[in-house]
Amino acid sequence: MKKFLAAMRLRFIFIMFVAVALVAIATGNKHYKVTTYDMNRTKSLEAVHIVSKYDASVAAKAPVFASSLLEAVSLAADNDVIFNGTMTGYGPDCVGCSGRVGCAPYPNVSNGNITYNDASYGTVRIVAADASVPCGTIVKISNVTFTDEPFYAIVLDRGGAIKGTLFDLLFETEQDALIVGRQKNVQYEIQRLGW
Q: Which of 5, 24, 125, 145 is 20 to 30 A from 118, alpha carbon to alpha carbon?
């Protein structure tokens, strides 16, 4: 009797697997995931139904590489754009700094607040960028020496010496900013162009 019940269970699992596979084939661009497992001799079937429909308008596009900042800004309206540039660091206590950034909503950064809470991207670092990069632009920054992980930043400041592909990352103090130095070949990926 035990052998008969075990054989029936296996047949049931096989039939369920075939049925789900046939449904997956018949539905075109939907897919189904079926997982079967045997834990501690307790036979069971877990069917996980995942449906996804391909939508070309939402499909992830590969980022476009730009050779200059002007090209990057012009392409960023329709694409994620990657370009290489230079990074430096600054603090709100720098010579000529007021403790407020140069773009609306003009947060006070003299209190050590070096991040901005963006509605779409969450907590991001603050950077100063060339005037050709609109305020509110979100960039993903990677290939820096002071962290292994890429991070997101928002353009909320300007600066007299910030030209071209130079981005200036805000730190709590000028002393803290020394960790950056002047790094070349930093990779910037524009995620959102301006507000």
A: 145
